[in-house]
Amino acid sequence: MTADLTVGVLHPGEMGSAVGAAARAGGARVLWASEGRGPRTGERAAAAGLEDAGTLAALAGRSDVIVSVCPPHAAADVARAVAALRYAGVYVDANAVAPATAREMAAAVEPAGAVFVDGGIVGPPPWRAGTTRLYLSGREAARVAALFPGGPLEAIALEAPPGAASALKMAYAAWTKGSAALLMAVRGLALAEGVDEPLRREWEHSQPDLPARSERAVAGSAQKAWRFVGEMEELAATFTAAGLPDGFARAAAEVYRRLAGYKDAPTPPSATEVAERLVKEPALPAPSPPQGERGG
Prior knowledge:
Blueprint: E1 6-10, H1 14-25, E2 29-32, H2 39-47, E3 51-52, H3 56-62, E4 65-68, H4 75-84, E5 90-93, H5 99-109, E6 115-122, E7 132-137, H6 141-145, E8 153-157, H7 164-192, H8 196-206, H9 210-221, H10 225-241, H11 247-258, H12 271-280
Parallel strand pairs: 1-2, 1-4, 2-3, 4-5, 5-6, 7-8
Antiparallel strand pairs: 6-7
Helix pairs in contact: 4-5, 7-9, 7-10, 7-11, 7-12, 10-11
């Protein structure tokens, strides 16, 4: 796969626009589809130098490679929409989903003629080199990695079938987003019991990194919490499929669900504000039990 190909990005949010810009830096022409998208998406796409194909059908008809970067709960629907167009290029799902979900998407797009490549992104939107890796698995993984030569996004092809890149992403997120959710929940517990200040003093004495880590957990998570709910649910399904306990992943999903109201907040809340919301926000009904590997 050479770099002078056309790549379609679905959909250029904060991460997708940066991935599209990285593909452009590698020499590819990059398209997006404005149909059904809001003005902020259009602004990001324009800033990244992406070309508007108008509709999903037009994008699919002109793209050699399609890269899906969307909230995890929407990933399967996006894949099915592309499959319905009989897309016959390379379809890359770069979303935070369970390995079983990745394999379900492969089963949807490949009978329609596409080649499926599983992807998992570790790191922030790749505007600077050295910050972000795109892991890829599947028989065309190395060819997709060649779209990002020496730019801000480091693409790493795994010699493994679809599902492996997603598994790596899930394992990584289990610690990063899982531990962030736990720290925020701990602050909520301490606040509810009136021992938040003594706890922080004890942390400063015996766990000196935790006060700052709890603040960073809030700064890095609260405004994106709405997006992390689906990722933690996919994580729970991943643990279930591996025969491992999944309760902490479901608890993390509930923490992020209670913080979803911070979406589009102009500034991150403080750790104390987040702790108060976690205590006061009512719990939603428990999700349905997992069905097979996918989970509820």
